[in-house]
Specification:
Layout (H helix, E strand, L loop, with lengths): L3 E3 L9 E3 L13 H18 L11 H27 L26 E2 L6 H13 L5 H13 L5 H12 L5 E2 L21 E6 L50 H13 L4 E6 L6 H18 L5 E7 L10 H4 L7 H19 L7 E2 L2 E7 L10 H16 L4 E5 L8 H4 L2 E3 L11 E5 L2 E6 L28 H9 L5 E4 L18 E2 L2 E2 L4 H10 L8
Parallel strand pairs: 3-4, 5-6, 5-14, 6-7, 7-9, 9-10, 10-11, 13-14
Antiparallel strand pairs: 1-2, 8-9, 12-13, 15-16
């Protein structure tokens, strides 16, 4: 398959040619050394038993049989012991979600809305959807035809099959996405970290649920509770008074912050980088954030995720947020621009965030500075950044640790004034991640999933084409977790960007290989990796 061009509809990723990840090309590295070590131990046992201690020519048939059995048992026990240590390095209780009972096809009829999440197996899914369209079960030939297209990869997502099936039935669908799980479980914070590596993720809070532009079901292909109606798992404490957003996946709901932050600790994340546009730092949002953090401190003490800043420069020059944000700061005007950038986001963000929640690198708060091609003369940002860091030091008494988008590396001096850099979009990297070591710290960054089809289609569902980049399963995440074990820091992009489909957070309709995946599937992989396990893939 040849290269394809992908454009981020939010302006986050510049146009570029990328190579689509191919299925089945990853090399399985996990557990090879374990089995090699076990094989060596088995060979060593055989040598001992066939050497001077047990001369073969003097052994009876019985003795040889017993010795062989003992050798085999010892080798098997060794493999089991080592494997158990790798697989169960995380000895904290596992959360298991239970599916609802299988759909009763007899109870399904023609519907005004069409639930894309009924039926787990391909055949049951096809039957349930066809009956919603037509009121009758499909012919077996149709079921076999569409099931084969799922197995062959023609349909890479349930919505792709759904769109085709609706056209076949002559129906204009109105999609609905029910939760196939019996309940959304409370996930406890992780306390089994064994690797030195710190893992964080970029955290979005631009949600407008239950309405658009960043809410409702149509703009995302994976769904979370609270996107369309309030969900119990995102309820706030009674003391928080903003009842209009209670239970919704919305930043003015304290329950949103509480649950997402707690889930991130369940995943074993050490920190989150809050994606700040600027206009989103509203009093109602900050109040909800602070309430969520206070509740976490009461419930979990010090086992609370730390927070840093992701400065997203996309907002500059946009017409929708008032006169202040219509400007495009000019990096040639070092004093004015450094003051504008600093006072717009850095200062209010860290003033609002209690210091005990700051994520520190060698005692310095962490900031990611992202390029959206909105700053004028950005090649001069190497002059602006030191001034911003100095303003921060004057106000807070500490100099921030700043990783800049690699797009700012116009001059060698940029590496003298920044602390590291990152490549936001890593699907065009053969390893699917990018790393840099500077000042004794290795920072790795990776985007492990992608599905921005609906968001790029006016926030309406459509079938994916061969030119659409779709990366929905766990293979890239497993690879990156295994190969960055020696990094000091790994940043995942993202925790919860539902529109671009890059998230690893709680979602009730992760689906591939013909089955639903647990809502905390990706979280479990991260926590297992941090507990020392080498993950098997593909």
């Amino acid at each position: 398959m040849g290269p394809l061009t992908v454009k981020c509809p939010a302006g986050r990723c510049v146009d570029r040619t990328v190579t689509r990840p191919l299925i089945g090309i990853f090399q399985t590295q996990s557990c090879k050394s374990l089995f090699q070590d076990a094989s060596k131990s088995s060979r060593k046992s055989s040598l001992l038993q066939n050497g001077s201690l047990y001369p073969t020519r003097l052994m009876s048939v019985y003795e040889r049989s017993a010795s062989a059995i003992a050798s085999t048992v010892a080798a098997v026990l060794l493999v089991l012991l080592i494997t158990q240590e790798a697989v169960h390095g995380d000895d904290t209780p596992k959360a298991t979600f239970a599916l609802k009972p299988p759909v009763d096809l007899e109870r399904i009829g023609i519907s005004a809305t069409h639930d894309l999440n009924l039926g787990e197996s391909p055949s049951m899914f096809i039957k349930a959807l066809w009956k919603q369209f037509t009121g009758r079960l499909p012919e077996e030939d149709l079921v076999r035809e569409y099931s084969s297209q799922i197995r062959s990869g023609t349909f890479r997502r349930r919505i792709d099959l759904g769109v085709s099936l609706a056209e076949r039935a002559g129906v204009a669908p109105r999609w609905h996405y029910s939760d196939p799980w019996q309940t959304q479980k409370v996930l406890e914070p992780h306390a089994g970290k064994k690797l030195a590596r710190d893992i964080g993720a970029v955290f979005m809070f631009f949600f407008t649920s239950p309405e658009g532009p960043n809410g409702g079901p149509g703009w995302a292909n994976n769904h979370v509770p609270g996107m369309t109606v309030p969900a119990a798992i995102y309820r706030s404490e009674p003391s928080f008074k903003n009842l209009s957003k209670d239970g919704l996946y919305h930043p003015e709901n304290a329950g949103f912050w509480y649950r997402e932050f707690r889930d991130s600790r369940h995943a074993g994340l050490d920190f989150l980088l809050l994606n700040v546009y600027g206009p989103d730092l509203q009093p109602s949002t900050i109040s909800a954030l602070q309430s969520g953090l206070a509740r976490l401190r009461e419930d979990d003490g010090e086992n609370v995720v730390k927070l840093g800043l992701f400065d997203d420069t996309w907002t500059w020059g946009q017409p929708w947020f008032g006169d202040f944000w219509k400007q495009k700061p000019d990096c040639l005007k070092v004093k004015d621009t450094s003051k504008t950038l600093y006072e717009a986001k850095w200062k209010p963000f860290f003033e609002a965030l209690p210091r005990e929640h700051w994520h520190l690198i060698n005692g310095r708060p962490m900031i990611y500075f992202y390029n959206s091609n909105t700053l004028q003369n950005k090649q001069n940002f190497d002059r602006v950044l030191p001034a911003m860091k100095e303003l921060f030091r004057n106000d807070f008494g500490v100099t921030p640790w700043v990783a800049v988008d690699a797009a700012f590396n116009y001059r060698p001096s940029m590496k003298n004034v920044s602390d590291s850099h990152f490549h936001w979009y890593t699907f065009d990297h053969p390893e699917h991640y990018a790393s840099e070591t500077r000042g004794g710290i290795t920072l790795s960054h990776s985007m492990v999933r992608w599905d921005g089809v609906s968001r790029g289609n006016g926030r309406k569902e459509r079938a994916a084409t061969a030119d659409d980049l779709i990366a929905k399963d766990d293979r890239i995440l497993k690879q990156v977790l295994n190969e960055t074990r020696q990094s000091d820091i790994l940043v995942l992009a993202t925790w919860n960007d539902l529109g671009e489909g890059t998230g690893i957070n709680r979602s009730y309709d992760y689906y591939w290989d013909g089955e639903w995946k647990q809502p905390n599937h990706f979280m479990s992989l991260v926590r297992r990796s941090q507990a020392g396990e080498l993950l098997q893939y593909p």
